[in-house]
Structure to design on (216 residues):
């Protein structure tokens, strides 16, 4: 038993394989983020910045719940996930980064604080995640290294572009319009979210049949 071999729990305890669930949670966070930011963009284009806070605030609850679940699962995976080698580090370190950032973002939105402070943390978390993915790709730590690296890259770039996106939001109350540069940044942020959601969902769907039969 993996639990017994690696000293990660009671040898009679069954192995809990939550990899597909983690992947689907990434997709759900991306979907909620796309929906929220798209509505903010549409509202700003129609009516300026006066209702932007009200458009963004309802997203705090679903983001907060998703972030809390991710943090709980990430902490469990960091400490007791019974896989050999460094797989708990590869998968759960970036997963924890995501949960922490999402949870902080939800709280910041709910309390109507500046988002850029969470954005700067997301920027560096994104860079770290890309580094994890690059090293995992070089070391061929998964059976689908290209898909895995694509997920880490998309997720990491989304974190990088979260910072300028939060800056856009923070300056909106004093603006009647924003430059085309800001629109480009927002589009790149959306692209990262879409790619992250699609790749994570595809890997998760592909993993379900095999993991139901035999966990990794």
């Amino acid at each position: 038993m993996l639990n017994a071999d690696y000293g990660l729990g009671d040898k009679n305890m069954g192995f809990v394989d939550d990899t597909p669930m983690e992947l689907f949670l990434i997709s759900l966070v991306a979907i909620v983020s796309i929906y929220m930011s798209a509505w903010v963009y549409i509202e700003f284009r129609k009516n300026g910045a006066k209702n932007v806070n009200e458009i963004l605030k309802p997203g705090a609850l679903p983001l907060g719940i998703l972030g809390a679940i991710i943090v709980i699962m990430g902490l469990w995976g960091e400490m007791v996930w019974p896989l050999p080698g460094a797989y708990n580090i590869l998968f759960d370190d970036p997963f924890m980064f995501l949960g922490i950032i999402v949870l902080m973002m939800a709280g910041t939105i709910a309390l109507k604080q500046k988002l850029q402070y969470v954005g700067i943390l997301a920027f560096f978390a994104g860079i770290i995640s890309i580094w994890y993915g690059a090293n995992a790709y070089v070391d061929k730590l998964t059976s689908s290294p290209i898909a895995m690296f694509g997920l880490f890259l998309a997720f990491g770039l989304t974190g990088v572009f979260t910072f300028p996106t939060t800056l856009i939001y923070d300056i909106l109350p004093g603006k009647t319009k924003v430059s085309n540069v800001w629109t480009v940044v927002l589009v790149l942020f959306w692209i990262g979210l879409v790619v992250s959601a699609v790749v994570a969902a595809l890997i998760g769907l592909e993993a379900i049949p095999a993991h139901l039969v035999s966990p990794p």
Notes: The CA atoms of residues 38 and 190 lie 9 Å apart. Residues 180-213 form the longest helix (34 residues). The chain is about 80% helix and 0% strand. Confidence is low (pLDDT under 50) at residues 1-14.
